[in-house]
Amino acid sequence: MQDDQVVMGAEICIENFSMETVEAAPVIKIGEQLIQFGVQTFEPFEKRTLKKTFVLPEPKLWSPEEPVLYEAIFQLETDECRKNFGVRTFSYDTQGFYLNGESYELRGVCEHQDFAGVGVALNQDLVDYKVKTMKEMGVNAWRSAHHFASEALLDACDRFGILLMNENRLLESTPWRVADLEKMVRRSRMHASMAFWSAANEEVIGNTDLGSRIASRLVTCIKQNNYESLVVSAELLNPAGVVNENYLANYDVLGVNYPEADAMGPGAIKIKEQYPKLPIMSTESASYFSTRGIYRDDEERCQCSNFGSLFSMILPGKRQSDDPGAGGTARPEKVMTYLAEHSYMGGVFLWTAFDYYGEPSPFGWPAISSQFGIADLCGFSKDYYYYYQAFWSKEPVIHIMPHWNEEGLEIDDQGMVTVRVFSNASDVELFVNGKSCGKKGIAGCIANWKVPYEAGKISAVVYEKNRPIAEAGVETSSTIHSVKSEKIYEGKEYCLYKLEGVDDQQRPVPTADNKLSLCVQNGEIIGVANGDPINHDSYSLECVRLFQGKALVIVRTDKEVQLEADIQE
Fold first, then answer.
1. What is the pTM of this model?
2. What's the whole-number average pLDDT of the chain?
3. Which of 10, 39, 409, 410 has the fewest other C-beta atoms within 10 Å?
């Protein structure tokens, strides 16, 4: 690759399905350029792959910041196929990841393939909504955990500018599994976003000789069908940092999960010390418990405080804050500190972008969903969404938590409540009902206060060089009076609406849990949800209950929709 041109390879596979000998002259069109393969003769039922190199002048490189796509048109006299592609290079060494020859930090999320109200029946619009939501947080990478990426996800990552880690999940080399993998690799290989293939995730036979033999078969399959993507594994660490050299030799990069976590100890650091020439990346981090809109732990309701839960994924019941697994595998602050101190890990893939159905943690039944998400099941952002955004956004970010309704707060014996601000500014000043609580420097995108609870309004102003640049605030509200409907995403076929309870002064009621009846004109409701991790309501497309003041409605339409929500109780 040079600044003014790039040498590229083209392949076209042609199969003659007839009983006759056929002549064909395949061509590929890219803009004004025509790549010709000449007249080819195909015997009956012959299948042949043709290859050719060509020069693309003055290429515009694909990146998350500028996701430029080209269209290639493959043509025969009787057939045509159109494919988008991007011009980019990927590499990885002991210092991290490189995109188009430049060092590049991966700001990634891991994500399951389901969504609120529809399960795994996602279409392009819903996938686009999910990707767009994380892109706005500053995400530039996505791990399809633990599933093959759908065509909709591949397409969304290409267009929005997201580097994709596609995942095989199972370290298994049975004939049907290898055939399945080959099909998935071939399907995804031309997508601009396809940066990594993960051969497996946390398999117990990883880092063993048996695992090495299986991995060799899988990696060979990937590399025979995809010449560009880097192949990694996603391994669960052990505190001693013990690995199998034969197993590691199969991969371009060793992926390790939760290198920052206390439960894993110094495992990742020990691997780096023992194998200084081994490229290592962080393939899974955080697993931080939080329930949207919740600021105190509640075991009965299976709710975790956004300030940091004292429930543990390792030990039963409420723990001390420094007990193993308290609050999740690792707090976001620890994840970002580890990243800053170990940049050779390439970045992070946070677990997870959204809550997902199943794998309830830290609670079992009656919980029905995970609580690891940076956003809830509906895609409504939790507080730490803005923490990551503060690190990854170039624009000013400010977010204040908690809400300011007394019934939802953790107030101590002295009447004090914690207030937290996330921002990428240098300083912040907190006000309670217009009275300043002092100005603080912002360290690691966070500032904290303990203030007496006083109904009214809390607000924060952030400064750069003593100049105010942004502010945010929340007010105490009264009881719910009506429901505000807001279209938060408009796709080609589906629209997503946020319903929010408001009081008689149109202030959000963050603790409202009223049941709503739904009516839509010029559309069809196909899914509803509210993000409650123990939502056992009978499923209906005619009603939905608010959870912490919000609910989601998914509508299929090709017209202007009128969605009405009335309070039932």
1. 0.96
2. 95
3. 39
